[in-house]
Design brief:
Elements (H helix, E strand, L loop, with lengths): L5 H5 L3 E11 L8 E6 L1 H4 L1 E6 L7 H4 L3 E5 L5 E3 L2 E3 L2 E2 L1 E3 L5 E3 L14
Antiparallel strand pairs: 1-2, 1-4, 2-3, 4-7, 5-6, 8-9
Length: 112
């Protein structure tokens, strides 16, 4: 495993955001949702695409707080512009479990 410097980690801006809208993304190569997340007053709302359809329904995602990288440049994913990277962990079957917080946090709180 490659080691990194503390300053490398400090450059990654990971924040808590609340999922406020979920749409199907039929144009995606692999099944995915289009998400809108609220990162609070400082960062506002950002969009992301997430391949999480195996484990999560649209209804159960609304209101869920997740961890996302907010300082990547926007990325074009087909006809959709992703503005942040929602984080998660791969299970052995390839499905993704979202990285979440276990207690409510203010939107935009930064991972320390």
């Amino acid at each position: 495993m490659k080691t990194i410097e503390w300053s490398d980690f400090q450059n990654v801006d990971i924040r808590v955001g609340t999922i406020v809208a979920v749409e199907e993304f039929p144009q995606a190569r692999r099944p995915a949702y289009k998400l809108q997340l609220d990162f609070g007053e400082q960062l506002g709302f950002k969009k992301s695409s997430a391949q999480i359809t195996t484990l999560y329904s649209k209804a159960e995602l609304i209101g869920k707080q997740v961890l996302a990288v907010v300082n990547f440049p926007p990325k074009q994913i087909g006809p959709f512009m992703s503005e942040c990277l929602v984080t998660g962990l791969y299970r052995p079957d390839g499905s993704v479990v979202l990285s979440t917080v276990d207690k409510p946090m203010p939107n935009g709180a930064r991972l320390a």
